[in-house]
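Batch manifest, entry 17 of 40.
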Amino acid sequence: MNKRKKNVTMAVILMIIASIGGLLYWLWVKSIALPILGELNSYEAETVDGEKFMIQDGKVKVVLFAEENCSDECEEMYGALEELQERLKKDKNFGTKVDMLSIAENPQMDKKIIEHYKDTYHVDVKGWKFLFVPNEKLELFKNQINDKKEAEPSVTLIDAKGNIRQHYQLKDEEEIEQLRKDINQLIRIHQQSIEERR
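Output type: structure tokens
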């Protein structure tokens, strides 16, 4: 076998090894994927500025409610989300592949309360939206999103296809980091599925 044939053979072997490695990695990612807890309906919401916003738009979502009178648990949750916001920016996914959504618990909530949230927790509106869901759809939305096992406020993670994947209390540093990792995992899975369809 001459040198050229050896090089071609080696290249083919390396391609096969790379393909097998990619397949094994994809199977591993899928094997540790988060469970699907339910499916979120498609909702049209409205921003504080009156603009229409589709809650399902092909991005991963981190969703929670904005209370009119933010409890201690609520304040802790928003403090944790402020930290998550900064971590997602470092990952370069914030606002491009993942959005954080705060849904007003009351469609008639005073917008000054929303502004207080935004100022207190240094909200970057590029990837953290405060939204109003119409009253006739709000209860259904709450029933779909809320973690029925927990009485305290929780954050819900939704994948790019609208599947509800997990709930988080964000009571400590470890859980904030776990949510960040889960977000990045869902982003990788979604990107892989897009590449497979090409």
